[in-house]
Design goal:
The protein is 39% helix and 18% strand. By secondary structure, the chain is an alpha+beta fold. It has a three-stranded mixed beta sheet. The radius of gyration is 27 Å and the shape is globular. It binds zinc ion (ZN).
């Protein structure tokens, strides 16, 4: 009997406490979702990105600069100041977005710096003094003012996809068509797409050629692949196997090796992976289109679009799919 009473009270207690337990659980969830919202809002507090810890790669020193000053140096270094103002504005917004994305996602130099001044790693940056030294004297003021205008007139604006700043990659010249990031580094981002821009062929970075001797090709391949062999007398001893969505070389067979177009670009120091080749008597001649990885915004394409009357936001939306520009 005592046992039955015990179970009876136990069930009664359970009935009364269960709703309390559930209510508490719901309360906890509510609190945590509120907290998340607060964190997201905090991430977009523009003031949080106003100070940049810039690593100077040649000296190894870190300089604290405000975001706008940093961006003047990036735009001045990354894009010719002779380009159209709307192209410079697109570059300023994209450089700002890239910087915010780096800080928000930890970047390559944490915990010591947010970004470095190298185009091979982050974005190129140049001081006003060094930039002036490379411009003709009569153009210095005009060029610098144009860059300052591009940054100031887009102040606080950056590129968003689904409310988040994008990994705003850019390159010099797409050689006719941009590329998906998955074909360059393997990562996939929904906002990169393959698009064409007319007018890129008017820029000197559109075409280039590299000619290397057969011996040099063998030497460079052996440095990378110790079992490399090639018989130049064989038909198809070098053969492009397939192309990417953006018309770059995806896979190329060189002798007994099958390598990616991205690796071939590095080995033979080509300006892009959009290349073809000719086997000559003693050498291999590569003809190359475009300059850079081809992902995201094309700088020459942006200038070409600006010359056709497009505004910076139209240029950005041409190169990144389904994005918005923050107010
Ligand atoms: Zn870096």
């Amino acid at each position: 009997m005592k046992k039955i009473l015990f179970y009876f009270f136990f069930i009664i207690i359970l009935i009364f406490t269960m709703p309390i337990l559930f209510t508490n659980q719901f309360k906890t969830e509510e609190v945590s979702s509120e907290e998340t919202e607060e964190i997201i809002e905090e991430k977009f507090d523009y003031g949080k990105y106003s100070n940049i810890r810039l690593l100077h790669t040649d000296s190894g020193t870190i300089e604290n600069v405000d975001l706008d000053t940093y961006l003047y140096g990036v735009v001045a270094s990354e894009m010719p100041a002779s380009f159209e103002l709307e192209a410079l504005k697109a570059q300023a917004v994209v450089a700002r977005t890239y910087t915010i994305y780096q800080i928000k996602n930890g970047g390559k130099h944490e915990p010591v710096a947010d970004v470095c001044d190298s185009s091979l790693c982050c974005q190129a940056w140049i001081s006003k003094e060094n930039r002036f030294a490379r411009w003709e004297e009569n153009l210095r003021e005009e060029y610098w003012n144009k860059i300052v205008r591009a940054v100031n007139e887009t102040k606080g604006k950056f590129v968003l996809y689904n409310g988040e700043p994008i990994n705003a990659l850019f390159h010099s010249n797409s050689g006719g068509k941009t590329e998906l990031s998955v074909n360059v580094w393997g990562g996939n981002f929904p906002y990169f797409q393959t698009v064409e821009t007319s007018g890129e062929e008017a820029y000197s970075s559109y075409n280039s050629e590299v000619e290397i001797s057969k011996d040099e090709l063998i030497k460079r391949m052996l440095e990378k692949y110790s079992n490399f062999k090639i018989d130049f007398k064989e038909d198809n001893c070098i053969q492009i196997l397939n192309f990417t969505d953006g018309d770059r070389v995806q896979k190329i067979k060189i002798g007994n090796m099958e390598i990616s177009g991205v690796d071939a670009r590095k080995i033979f120091e080509l300006k892009s992976a959009k290349f073809n080749f000719q086997i000559l008597e003693n050498s291999i001649k590569f003809t190359v289109l475009g300059y850079g990885h081809g992902v995201g915004l094309s700088q020459c394409g942006s200038d070409s679009m600006a010359k056709q009357g497009k505004k910076y936001d139209e240029i950005i939306k041409h190169y990144y799919k389904d994005v918005e520009i923050s107010e």
